[in-house]
Amino acid sequence: MSSSPPTSLLDVETGPGKPPMLRVEATGDAASWVAEQRDVLRAVVAEHGSVLVRGLGLRDAAGTGAVLQRLANSPMTEMEAFAPRETYSEGVYSSSQWPPNQPMCMHHELSYRLEFPGLMLFACLTAPAEGGATAVADSATVLDALPTELAERFEREGWLLTRSYNDEIGASLAEAFGTEDRGAIESYCRANAIEFEWQPDGGLRTRQRRSAVVRHPVTGRRCWFNQIAFLNEWTIAPEVREYLVDVYGADGLPFNTRFGEGDPIGEDVVQLLNKLYVDHTAREPWQAGDLLLVDNVRTAHSREPFEGPREVLVAMGDPVRLADCSPTVEVTAG
C-alpha cells in the first residue's frame, strides 16, 4: 500500500470544535496500513481521546473488520443493545436503526453494562448528503462543567436504567440478549446485576444501577461515563414521547433513566446535560472512506440528524470491566 503515513503525534491536526485528524494518502489495503501504523494510531487516541483518519478509503464491512482485527486487542460482541443492528462479523455492526431526522445524543457505548468496549471504530462507507456527523465530546471536560451539587449526587447515587422489552418498539429480547429463552435471559440478568420482571403479555422489564462517574482504566482520570441523557424520556422528541406514554404507559417506555436511588430526573437536568455536551462537541462532516477511532471511556459520541443515504459501520473492541474503573456504586452480580 502506498501512503504518506504520520510519523509522530505532531502530524495530528487539531482545532476548536474539530476532532483530531490524520490525513493520509493511501491506496490499496487499508488493513495493512493500519497494522503498520497501529502504535501511532493507538498513541494518538491515548493522547487525544479520538482521531479521524481521512484517506484510508474504507469501502466495505470486510475491510472494516480487518482494520478492527489489526487495531484492537480483541473484538467485542454487543449485548443489551437498545436498538436493532445488523451484524457483519465479530465486533462489526451496522449503525443502530434510529430515525434519520432524530439525533442520537451524546453517550458512551454500552455504559450500562458491566463490561463495555474500550475502543470504538466508526467507518464511513457512504457519506450522507447533509448532516449525520458522528460528533465527539471529552467526558472529563463535561464532568468538570457540571454543577458541583449535581455531579456529587450522581457520583454518590449513580444512575438507574429501566427498560421494557416488547415486540413492537426498541430492541427485541433476541436482539438484546441473543436468545428468547427465558431461562437463559434470567441467567444473564442475574450474572450482570440486572433486576427483571416478566409481564403478563410476555414482555420483560428490567432495572440496572450503574456508576455515572468512573476512572479511566489507564490514566485514572475521572470521567462522566453513562447514557443518562440519551436514554432519558426527556431527550425523546415530545410527540414520540407522548405517543409512547399514551400506548405503553409512563412505566412502559422502551428505556428511561433515573437517579440511582430511583428518583425521576427532571427535564431541566436532562436539558442541562445535553447543553453541556453541545458546548463541548467536536464534529467533522463524514467523507466516504473515513475512519473514526474513539476511546469509549474518555470520549462520548453522538449521531446527528441527516438527509440522504448514510452507511457508517460500528466496530467494538478492547473490552473493559466496570470493576476496573473504580465505580462509585457497588454492583453485586448474582
From TrEMBL:
Pfam families: TauD. Residues 30-316 form the TauD/TfdA-like domain. Its EC number is 1.14.11.-. Residues 1-20 are annotated as: Disordered. Keywords: Antibiotic biosynthesis, Dioxygenase, Iron, Oxidoreductase. GO terms for molecular function: dioxygenase activity. Its cofactor is Fe(2+). It is an enzyme of class 1 (oxidoreductase). InterPro entries: AlphaKG_dependent_hydroxylases (IPR050411), TauD-like_sf (IPR042098), TauD/TfdA-like (IPR003819). This is TauD/TfdA family dioxygenase.
